[in-house]
Predict the 3D structure of the following.
Amino acid sequence: MSAARSLLVELLVEELPPKALKKLGEAFAHALGEGLRAQGLATEHSAVTVYATPRRLAAHVSAVLPAAPDKAVSQKLMPTSVGLGADGQATAALLKKLAALGADASAVPRLARRMDGKAEALFFDSRVTGATLAQGLQKALDQAIARLPIPKLMSYQLESGELPGWNSVQFVRPAHALVALHGAEVVPVTALGLAAGRETRGHRFEARMEPVVLQHADHYAQQLLEQGGVVASFAARHGEVARQLQSVAAREGLVPIDDAALLDEVTALVERPNVLLCRFEEEFLAVPPECLILTMKANQKYFPLLDAAGRLTNKFLVVSNISPDDPSAVIGGNERVVRARLADAKFFFDQDRKRRLEERVAGLDKVVYHGKLGMQGERVRRVRAIARAIGQQLGGDALAAKADEAATLAKADLLTGMVGEFPELQGTMGRYYALHDGRPEDIALAIEDHYKPRFAGDGLPRNEVGLAVALADKLETLVGLFGIGQVPSGDKDPFALRRHALGVIRMLTERALPLEVEVLLRLALSAFGTRIADPSAALTDFLFDRLASNLREQGYSAQEVESVLALCPQRLADVPPRLGAVRAVSAMPQAAPQAAAHKRGGNNLKKVEG
């Protein structure tokens, strides 16, 4: 048998969706490797290397055989007593089974007899010819393409290639070439209407050769870099972008903003990264830094630069896909683009501050919240009522009044130009505008914090006013949507109710708030009047399910969690210390016999009537 050699498979396509590129590249390469291993063409020691650029998905698999070894197969047919008659001749059932396997009566003398449990059975032993690489790779390639986690399929037409005429193909983006090399030899496979060859294309502007003719599977990355001007490895490009960002920023005594998702996305947008330093006018720094950072990151994929104190500067980094001798045109172009975006942000900020937040509150009566739950204005009034009641329980009249004030203004920034342009800034802009209006800092912070926690690991509200409003906002959402039957199902949770529930749980437990679940749900329900059905029972179960799941994720055992939550403690602040007590008691040597005794007693009581 010929020696094993490396295999290289590449799909050359039009620009892939950047946010999905990393996952697509990994899925393609690993599925290809698994498909080859499953057919005996690669072993568990065969290394799979992932390559993914904006215009290609590729995989390099080491130690791939030109043909899989033949396999001995032993197939159980039936018990001997069923397959052979008293005279030792094959029964009709056995002959039918053999025919299904492509054999006839001549195979009967060669059947093996082996014990299968307590009875003897007949076995058909044969050798299956191993798949050739062309056969096996075709199957693995088809499966890898079919299983790609494609966010949205495109349909496009083939004008030429393996499928003549105008034939419709579906893939993430139109594919233009297929490469399949086993060592230096082309493997004759097809995909997406393309026949495999050894030609690919490099960088659109900086390739030294077009096309790039690949000579060997092991030279793929080197040839693409030297002749095509492309860094084929996603991981290598990612590291190079990160290195250049730090290097260029360090020359200015600054640091780039830390954003892993942005780094991944930019890596997926370039084939040969070149980081350049740009600037904008210092006057734009008068705009809240959150606005400037968001517009640079989200709209332009730039990396803002911060000084040693973490303050935003008027410098930023661009990851360019070209490396001209004179980068001034690239730098100037990016500076013009960002200047226009920042001018828009400054305009919205200046215009928004001409009206006080309280002047916008009435406009919320014209903004739809939910078809069955009314307008945003109605929602604000419900949140105010709940926040006042929570504030009263936590801090008396003073906190109730502050919670009411913050809840009144909490949604007003939804009607500002800045939040209309950047919805991600809701709450944040409310804080800036409240401070501009002369509101106390605790009220301004509560306006921003009432959305917290926004995601897993996010911080909690920074003061009691924020806690009261955040709890009220989430409870209003949970009770209202459960009350109209909008309950999460499976992986569907369009209103993020699981996140809202976890937010309520975290605030009650981590801040040790002396509030009871039943009382909170009753307060929230009363704010709706007769508009909704009472969802308290279902919502209580939902909250405790989320709490149990969260505690298990923290490392508590299912038994520990069940022992504490079995009685549904109404004060969730009591749960952490009780879990600690359970864990301490269970570590004692006498814990196991006592638990067994209690279990026996419980089982006996179940048998007693009355």
